């Protein structure tokens, strides 16, 4: 196997594939990067058994300056190989595999020789031939992930909650995540999904990596399912993830249908106030801020307190407030994550009681996006 390639084009795809390679894997060959050169181009593959990424560098794209002198395949130690490639002196590099999987990498006057492994021992990627593919624009799918993945659990004691639950019924894609203290739910209409129905749980870590891969130049993301794997196609890159097994809890009953107090806030302004209040609350053991609402006098205040440092109090400016007086305490970090997911929107926060979960929805699109936070009992 021997090829020459433009180093910048190679590094771009190498960085993509490396997202799936972990040094902590129990399968030694998975610490390596698989390279396959054939007539169509150069295929790079990385995997940690949970996620796998494969991308193709086309031979017929002049920007890649890819010339394949002899086809073949090799697995190279990913970390060393990546460090070498990124430090080579010239714009182009040549890789030549000789006897016994010895691999020579040359660029200008620099030459490295590293030991490779037999590519035949690399695990095969799952075969997914599902016909029911759904397609979303890249920016919409990235936003969907970022708005829901914030609420997945980090506790392995309930593995099912470490994923985002996706269901597709009647052309409506619903994504829900909860760690039992908060919940995020987003709906998207998919008129093109005709007959497809989905009910899967995708690990939050996989989705976070996927969102980082979706650039502004990726117009569409295609999603396909098999029994225990999901495949996302982004241009020439394939992203595989295992699915979580089990039944996701019924979260619809957690969302209250009515409220006794509601207030409208500018999300960015409220976020800044919560950030200021949490400067002190983070110094205390319980990390709680308190919000008081007095609709009769159109007054809202937020309090942060640390017995060791001091306290903070700030008057808020809701654009509208209705209902009963209320005093409620909550974890400011949950609130900050929720508010960031709304961007520059105006939001409505609806409360039922000081100890019941409260909801945040955008005033413009309240049917399709909801964040829910459980308050903290302070007495």
From TrEMBL:
**How the protein assembles, per its UniProt entry?**
Forms a ring-shaped head-to-tail homodimer around DNA.
The function of this protein is: Confers DNA tethering and processivity to DNA polymerases and other proteins. Acts as a clamp, forming a ring around DNA (a reaction catalyzed by the clamp-loading complex) which diffuses in an ATP-independent manner freely and bidirectionally along dsDNA. Initially characterized for its ability to contact the catalytic subunit of DNA polymerase III (Pol III), a complex, multichain enzyme responsible for most of the replicative synthesis in bacteria; Pol III exhibits 3'-5' exonuclease proofreading activity.
The DNA polymerase III beta sliding clamp central domain is annotated at: 136-250
Sorted alphabetically, the Gene Ontology cellular component annotations on this record are: cytoplasm; DNA polymerase III complex
* Compartments it resides in: Cytoplasm
Looking at the record, the residues that make up the DNA polymerase III beta sliding clamp N-terminal domain are 1-126
Instruction: Give the GO biological process terms.
Output: DNA strand elongation involved in DNA replication
Which is one GO molecular function term here? DNA-directed DNA polymerase activity
In terms of superkingdom, the source organism counts as: Bacteria
Q: Which InterPro entries match?
A: DNA_clamp_sf, DNA_polIII_beta, DNA_polIII_beta_C, DNA_polIII_beta_cen, DNA_polIII_beta_N
Tell me which family the UniProt entry assigns to this protein: Belongs to the beta sliding clamp family.
Q: Which residues form the DNA polymerase III beta sliding clamp C-terminal domain?
A: 253-376
Q: Which UniProt keywords apply?
A: Cytoplasm, DNA replication, DNA-binding, DNA-directed DNA polymerase, Nucleotidyltransferase, Transferase
Q: What is this protein called?
A: Beta sliding clamp
Source organism per entry reads Secundilactobacillus silagei JCM 19001
What NCBIfam families does the record tag this protein with?
dnan (TIGR00663)
Alphabetical list of Pfam families matching this protein: DNA_pol3_beta, DNA_pol3_beta_2, DNA_pol3_beta_3
